[in-house]
Amino acid sequence: MLFACEGNLKEVKQMEKDFLEPQSKVYDLNLFYTDSGSVRANLRSTMMLDYSNRAFPFREFPEGIELDFFEADSSKNTIYSDYAIQYLETGLIDLRTNVKIVTSDSTILRGPQLYWDQRQEWLFTDYPYDLQLPNGARNKGEGFDSDQKFSTFNSRSNTGTQYIQDQ
């Protein structure tokens, strides 16, 4: 058997192009997440591209994000990144380029890339990082994983200056 069909290649390419485009574009985003009347997070970005129409849906922030998290005691932790992708099915956020986290106790973590698992509340990277603690102690290392409150911090390799208080 032989079958043949006739079609317009330009029309087919146009349909493919529409699928590759984002479902929506949002400019000057200022999104608040609330729970039981309390603000839990505030996300700010100059642009968000929503690819929810894909088989593996994601949101892209090509111009970066600034994200504040508020704890029950109203303390604030902030994440900055020049680029980010949020994978909707897995809850994983890929933060890239000039990633900086500032915690409520003034701990500052910097690195080129960081993954944040929202569901597990866990941060990790294989890239170099620089950690500055509120007491001035510094730690530079190659790769780490930690809970998002930094109460458990596992570094693969590191060097730094630590200050120990005499008792």
- Please indicate the percent range of residues in DSSP E strands (runs of 2 or more): over 45%
Q: From the alpha-carbon coordinates, what is the Rg to the nearest angstrom?
A: 21 Å
Instruction: List the domain count as a whole number.
Output: 1
Q: Widest sheet: strand order?
A: 2-3-6-7-5-4
On the 0-100 scale, what is the average pLDDT?
Answer: 85
User: Into which percent range does the helicity of residues fall?
Assistant: under 10%
Indicate the low-confidence ranges by residue numbers: none
Q: Would you mind describing this structure in some detail?
A:
There is one protein chain. The chain has 167 residues and is mostly beta strands. It has one domain: lipopolysaccharide transport protein A fold (Sandwich). 7% of the residues lie in helices and 57% in strands. It contains 1 helix and 12 strands, in the order αββββββββββββ. Strands 2-3-6-7-5-4 form a 6-stranded antiparallel β-barrel. The protein is elongated, with a radius of gyration of 21 Å.
